[in-house]
Structure formats: C-alpha cells, structure tokens
Specification:
With 83 residues, the protein is mainly alpha-helical. Helix content is 65%, strand content 0%.
Amino acid sequence: MHQSHERVTNDFAYHPATGMMAELHDSVRQNFASLAHWVVENAPRGYAREQAIIRLREAMMWTNAAIACDSNSNEVVPQSPTQ
C-alpha cells in the first residue's frame, strides 16, 4: 500500500468523535463487546479463545480507526447505529 504524506498526516492526527461519529464508535464497541461475550460463553477456554478475543479487539480498533480516519471518504455514508 502506497502511503502519501497526506495519508500519514491524517493517520497520525487526532480525530475527535462528535455527533453521528461518536454514536458509531459507541455502536462498534457495543457490538464487538456483545460478540466477545458470546465467544467467552460458548468457546472452550484455551489458546484459540484467547486469540479470538484478541482478534475481536483488533477488529474493533481497526473499525473505529476507519470511522475516525476515513470519515471523509465518499465510499461510506454514516448511518444511524440502529440501522
């Protein structure tokens, strides 16, 4: 992936969550937490379960980064978290 100076500046900038974006971040956390609880309740203890939780945390962080850093993209139009 080619990184431009503009992209690097955007990726390392602070992106405050306001309005709809704050709601989307909350929705992301709630949905990933719900799935993580399901994994804890249904998967046997062990390395695989721990890795599943780690990967869910990672996916949650990447999702929130996409919302924060790529919110000016024309590819995704934010929707209400309940949709």
